[in-house]
Amino acid sequence: MAVKAMYDYDWPSRSAAELYGDDQLVHVWFRGNVFFVSAQTFRFPKAMPFGELVGLCKGFFAADPDFVPDAMDSASWKVDGQPITPVLDRSLEENGVGHKSLVEFTL
Amino acid sequence: MTVPAQKPVRKLSMKQRYSALTHDLDWTPTYVTEDEVFPHTTFEGIKVHDWSKWDDPFRLTVEAYNKYQAEKDRRLYAVLDGFAQSQGQLGLTDARYMNAMKIFLQGIPIHEYDAHRNFAYLARYANGPGARFAALCQSLDELRHAQTEIHTLSHYNKYFDGMHDWHKWSDRVWYLSVPKSFFEDALTAGPFEWLIAIGFSFEYLLTNLLFVPFMSGAAFNGDLPTMTFGFSAQSDESRHMTLGLEAIKFMLEQDEDNLPIVQDWLDKWFWRGYRLISLVAGMMDYMLPKRVMSWKEAFELYFEEQMLGGLFKDLEYYGIKPPRHVDWAIGEKEILSHQVYWILYQYSHAAAFSTTIPNAEDQAWLEQAYPETWPVYRDTVWDKAQRVMDEGGRYFNPGLPQLCTVCQIPMGFTEPGDPLTQCQRQSVYEGERYDFCSDGCQWIFDREPVKYRQSWLPVHQIFQGNCGGPTLPDVAAWYGLQPGDGAEYLGSPDHQNWLAWHGQAPQEG
Q: Best mutation site among A13, A61, A97, A102 for testing chain B: the one with the most B CBs within 10 Å?
């Protein structure tokens, strides 16, 4: 539905992909763990290998004292709700991760 | 000598007197058209046939209004003086209590001022004199409320952290984007939508849930100034509620084509307002040393019983249905405060209030108030946070949260019936993804995506480099936060001062 206004109402997004250059925002969600109260938003290069994201997660989620980093190696992954088997040496983009995609894992 | 019998003075009824005093305040323009004088009241699609049907049941005059308000102000300022002279802050239940008032000061007065501005605009741009005068009074009320709230709380700024830069914080700090975006959403809508958004949904539907907890919280925790302010504002609030109700009834009675438009706004603004006052839920159940009632009880009384059971029964006559997504809100009443406070707890290192793990007494209260849901959160998050404390740490989230595009709250709300799985909703508009915490916020976005894609989301702004830099100290400096404003309560300057004022040694560590 168009916004009711006295003129042609059209304004750009304040978080459009082009505002981040070669990077993009990515939401990483540790499903089933509410110690991290919500999914986390990161700014990552589109060309960053997926394996690097896994490595970062191992450090980041260690703020939970019960987290076992090595368990990440057998995590199951979804991107925007679709199950994927990530190729770790390929980029986020090549693994189907776009701007503001939701990357979800379950241990 | 005989005195001629005086002719008895004919007394006018209140309605006649009001009409005699005000009847020359409105006229029909002849040099220009009505549309040229009032250009903003048609584009939203609301049809009005007779503006004189807008009744102002209070029939106040400016003279009476001023007299009445001046008297209330005199009483309030006498209390403020007495409290300051007697060092009243020492009689609070605990310094922890001030965190609730910090959130109030940071999140409310500046938007009272927004409301003042927009009601002043309506006092000029509404076609009918009844609507204009009611808007004028409310505009003055809102300005007074902004001023008296700031004056009331300014005393505490001398003794407590987290109160010095509320004005700047409102424009910058992440959780204050929640009320800011709510009010700016309403300010940028048309005049009729504003009346449903603020006049009706906020001032009528949800007002008791917002104000009663703060003011009773103040009364229970030794905060005489805030309580007095609350009483001083209460009589205005009843006038505002009447204006809100008058506004919706007027629109519905003027033309039956207005019904779907009004229902749509009601659906939107119920959910916007409900999400906004989730901050009150967290405050009520977790931040008051002495509780009044639980959020769940307040929601049942002030919303389910009074609004759904009372107001909406009356509005049925016009064809109005209870707001969309109301069942979702009812379903959240057992879990809302736990989730909100858990958000505040883990991000309070970047906030201007402090948080702490509920102590044994708090936990006993939570257990009896929420026998089903408190144990879930105690076992999954609080026990773990306690373990981190016991090992000499303090759990703060090391990153930045995914935010809802509409309410702007970190997406920590869960799926209905599943308190441990966060709700994830996404919409794609013109090739870009947007995230939402709930069906309610997603529905609001999908109605007007071009409006909400402009959301100033604090996390996205930080990542774009617009908030002072990439690290937490950079952002905190840009926010204007000083050491002691946020983070953990235990051991904070507020806590240590409190102990020193009461002759107790600060705790170790």
A: A13
**Which residue range is the domain that position B93 belongs to?**
51-394+472-501
Q: Which domain holds residue A36?
A: 20-106
Residue A7 domain-assigned? Answer: no
What's the CA gap between B7 and B10, in Å, rounded? 9
Residue B62 pLDDT grade (very low, low, confident, very high; cuts 50, 70, 90): confident
Residues of A in contact with B47 (CB under 8 A): none
Count: domains in chain A: 1
- Is residue B426 in a domain? no
Q: In what order do the strands lie in the sheet with B400-401?
A: A82-84, A76-79, A101-106, A23-30, A40-45, B400-401
For the whole model, what pTM was predicted?
0.94
Query: In whole angstroms, what is the distance from residue B442 CA to residue A4 CA?
Result: 19
- B17 to chain A nearest CA, in Å? 39
The tokens describing A64, both together, are 């939970």
Q: Which residues pair with A26 in a beta bridge?
A: A42, A101
Per-residue pLDDT tens digits for B389-429: 999 999 999 999 999 999 999 999 999 999 999 999 999 99
Interface ipTM above 0.90:
yes
Of A12, A16, A39, Cβ closest to residue B402: A39
> Distance between CA atoms of B475 and B353, rounded to whole angstroms?
16
For the residues B291-296, what does the mean pLDDT come to? 93
**Do residue B460 and residue A41 have CB atoms under 8 angstroms apart?**
yes
Within 8 A of A101 by CB-CB distance, chain B residues are: 433
Quote the number of domains for chain B. 1
- pLDDT for the residue numbered B509: 42
In a domain, B456, yes or no: no
Task: Provide the CATH number for the domain around residue B121.
Answer: 1.10.620.20
> In the predicted model, what is the mean pLDDT of chain B?
93
Could you tell me which chain B residue has the CA closest to the CA of A106?
A: B421
Q: For residue A101, tell me if it sits in a domain.
A: yes
Closest partner residue to A38 (CB to CB) among B43, B412, B464 is B412
What is the CATH number for A83?
Answer: 3.10.20.560
Contact of B357 with B386, CB cutoff 8 Å: yes
Q: Where are the alpha helices (DSSP H) in chain A?
A: 50-60
Q: Among A3, A42, A63, whose Cβ lies nearest the Cβ of B451? A: A3
